[in-house]
Specification:
The chain is an alpha/beta fold. It folds into two domains: 174 residues, Nitrogenase molybdenum iron protein domain (Rossmann fold, 3-Layer(aba) Sandwich); 118 residues, Nitrogenase molybdenum iron protein domain (Rossmann fold), CATH 3.40.50.1980. The protein has 14 helices and eight strands. Strands 2-1-3-4 form a four-stranded parallel beta sheet, sandwiched between helices. The protein has a four-stranded parallel beta sheet with strand order 6-5-7-8, sandwiched between helices. Strand 3, helix 6 and strand 4 form a beta-alpha-beta unit. Helix 4 packs across helix 8, helix 9 runs parallel beside helix 14 and helix 12 runs parallel beside helix 13. The longest helix is centred in the middle third of the chain and has 29 residues.
Length: 309
């Protein structure tokens, strides 16, 4: 398990220098707090989006990892991040080793009034070897419920609004569940390949069979060169059309993954971009629906999708 998470644990950067410039702000009463607006942080933009959907005008949300065009594995915390965390009254972070830097920064600026929602904890995935928990269909509804409860506790005068927004969130998420059910009925049992386990939870929910060896996925995820044997297995899956699609991480590439994508294109195996960081202009519901649609297009029509943004 240590091996699978090693690529993410490097994000636990040395925080002393970052926090030094932000400690003076910790505990200060901001104008937003005085007006009843809750300062909140989403370690990943998809979680920040959930906070915004529930909190509306009564929250001020900062999303830390929010650029879908960069490799999230290379993220480094900055003094700005430390300041945002020090003043936040609500934080939603992934856990499972994905954003360990958050724990360090929170410990460096403790607050008795801060609520931290750790997704791996509330979904019972603390020890998950695949940290991409937002692709599990049950995750975001649970995050929405916990965010709602935290906001109601912090700003009870807006409780009715938060509860209503939670209900509206669930109505929209029902469309995601329905799309997954339709896809599962139509495509259950079809085989796919992946470069990393980014969307594995979603693929499984759709009833698809991922034939890529876990060791290959974990090696690529952790920046390790896959074994020649696993590379050959991947190549054979594509060359022999043993899979209907190759899902690749749109934000991370290596010579091995680029070669596999090129091979898939040459052999007319559809490729589908999947993201770790939610693309701009979307909400988590529309993001998941776009990914499902792209995967369905690959399975049904051999349509490749290089970007959903």
């Amino acid at each position: 398990m240590v091996l699978e998470k090693c690529r993410y644990l490097h994000r636990g950067v040395v925080v002393l220098g970052l926090v030094a410039g932000s400690l003076a702000l910790a505990g200060c009463t901001t104008q937003r707090a005085a007006s009843g607006v809750v300062d909140a942080v989403g370690a990943e933009v998809q979680y920040g989006d959930v906070i915004s959907q529930i909190g509306g005008p009564f929250v001020s949300v900062t999303s830390i990892m929010s650029n879908p065009t960069t490799d999230p594995h290379n993220f480094e915390a900055s003094p700005r991040v430390a300041r945002e965390i020090s003043s936040a009254r609500l934080i939603v972070q992934n856990g499972a080793g994905y954003d360990a830097f958050m724990n360090q920064l929170e410990s460096a600026s403790p607050s008795s009034t801060r609520t931290v929602v750790t997704v791996s904890t509330i979904t019972d995935h603390v020890a998950a070897i695949n940290p991409h928990l937002w692709y599990q269909p049950t995750t975001m509804p649970q995050v929405a419920r916990d965010v709602t409860d935290a906001l109601v506790k912090d700003a009870p005068q807006h409780a009715a609004y938060f509860r209503a927004r939670d209900a509206a969130f669930m109505v929209q998420w029902d469309r995601v569940d329905a799309a997954i059910a339709v896809a599962r009925e139509r495509f259950r049992g079809l085989a796919v390949a992946t470069t990393e386990p980014v969307a594995d939870y979603l693929l499984s929910a759709m009833g698809l069979v991922n034939l890529t060896p876990w060791r290959f996925q974990a090696d690529v995820m952790n920046g390790i060169d896959p074994s020649p044997q696993d590379i050959v297995t991947q190549q054979d899956l594509i060359a022999r059309h043993g899979v209907r699609a190759l899902c690749f991480n749109a934000q991370v590439s290596s010579p091995v993954t680029v070669a596999l994508r090129d091979m898939a294109a040459a052999d007319h195996v559809a490729t589908v971009a999947v993201y770790e960081t939610m693309p701009t202009g979307l909400h988590v519901q529309s993001w998941m629906l776009a990914e499902i649609t792209a995967i369905e297009g690959a399975l049904a029509h051999a349509t490749s999708t290089g970007s959903i943004a």
